[in-house]
């Protein structure tokens, strides 16, 4: 039995990346993950995903009451959105809005809606410290939201992305990663470095509990492309519940 979290009534969102396939190629076990998570970061076609996959994941998420989030990315299918790119701010804002709008069509058709936005890969890491790119992402979120423009933005605590979102009047939601190693500065260890991704289940569960105890984020992320991701997410969920954590979507 895991030791109890303080405060005992702490509420945490559990999110994972879904829909990360293309055509006949599949990567994430969407069906299994949707039975575990409370929020789904759905690939919108720029780093992975295609219309049929987006539609299917939205339908399954709506059936299970899982919140749908747009996981926006640089236009980089070949590199899975993990290659550094320099995109002019106006172009990036338009591409972010485009991805959100595409997913919104399928979310609404499924009886749901896009409830938040989270950058993926290189864009996520770039907006931690690049004010111009962070502002462009936020501009894209506001553009996709029309007159309201109020979609929450999910990002790394202390990032310029969350600062830009808050400055624009958008809900800024900090998240932590159960299966990623951190630098002493609180950023993610680059994937090119050894040990950047945690694979050992006990280590992932222990980090998840430690992050929640430390108040590291409102949402806890597990990567859907990690081998055995669904089983690992299930273990994390059980450990959190055993520790007295209530799991619920933030959006």
Query: What low-confidence regions span 5 or more consecutive residues with pLDDT below 50?
Result: none
| Major sheet size, sense and barrel closure | 8 strands, parallel
How far is it from the N-terminal to the C-terminal residue, by CA?
Answer: 30 Å
Structural class computed from helices and strand pairing:
alpha/beta
Number of helices: 8
Helix content: 25-40%
> Rg, please?
17 Å
| Average pLDDT score | 92
How would you describe this structure to a colleague?
The structure is a single chain. By secondary structure, the chain is an alpha/beta fold. It is 39% helix and 16% strand. It has 8 helices and 8 strands, in the order βαβαβαβααβαβαβαβ. Strands 1, 2, 3, 4, 5, 6, 7 and 8 form an 8-stranded parallel beta sheet that branches. Strand 5 (153-155), helix 6 (160-167) and strand 6 form a beta-alpha-beta unit. The radius of gyration is 17 Å and the shape is globular. The model has no long low-confidence stretch (mean pLDDT 92).
Short description:
The chain has 251 residues and is α/β, with parallel strands linked by helices. It contains eight helices and eight strands; from the N terminus they run βαβαβαβααβαβαβαβ.
Write the layout of secondary structure elements.
Elements: E1 11-18, H1 30-34, E2 39-43, H2 51-64, E3 67-72, H3 89-109, E4 114-119, H4 121-129, H5 131-144, E5 153-155, H6 160-167, E6 172-177, H7 201-213, E7 219-222, H8 229-242, E8 246-247
Parallel strand pairs: 1-2, 1-7, 1-8, 2-3, 3-4, 5-6, 6-7
Helix pairs in contact: 2-3, 3-5, 4-5, 5-6, 7-8
């Amino acid at each position: 039995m895991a030791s109890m979290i303080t405060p005992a009534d702490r509420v945490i969102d559990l999110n994972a990346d879904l829909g990360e396939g293309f055509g006949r190629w599949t990567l994430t076990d969407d069906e299994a993950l949707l039975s575990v998570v409370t929020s789904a970061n759905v690939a919108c076609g720029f780093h992975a995903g295609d219309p049929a996959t987006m539609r299917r994941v939205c339908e399954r998420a709506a059936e299970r009451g899982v919140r749908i989030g747009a996981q926006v990315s640089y236009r980089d299918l070949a590199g899975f959105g993990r290659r550094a790119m320099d995109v002019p701010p106006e172009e990036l804002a338009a591409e972010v809005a485009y991805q959100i709008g595409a997913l919104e069509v399928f979310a609404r058709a499924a009886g749901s809606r896009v409830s938040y936005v989270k950058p993926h890969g290189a864009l996520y890491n770039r907006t931690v410290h690049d004010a111009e790119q962070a502002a462009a992402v936020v501009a894209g979120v506001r553009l996709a939201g029309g007159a309201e423009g109020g979609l929450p933005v999910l990002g790394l605590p202390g990032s310029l992305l969350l600062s830009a979102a808050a400055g624009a009047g958008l809900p800024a939601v900090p998240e932590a990663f159960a299966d990623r190693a951190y630098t002493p500065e609180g950023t993610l260890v680059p994937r090119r470095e050894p040990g950047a991704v945690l694979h050992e289940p006990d280590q992932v569960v222990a980090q998840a509990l430690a992050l929640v105890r430390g108040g590291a984020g409102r949402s806890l992320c597990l990567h859907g492309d990690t081998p055995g991701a669904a089983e690992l997410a299930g273990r994390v969920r059980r450990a959190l519940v055993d520790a007295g954590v209530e799991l619920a979507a933030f959006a």
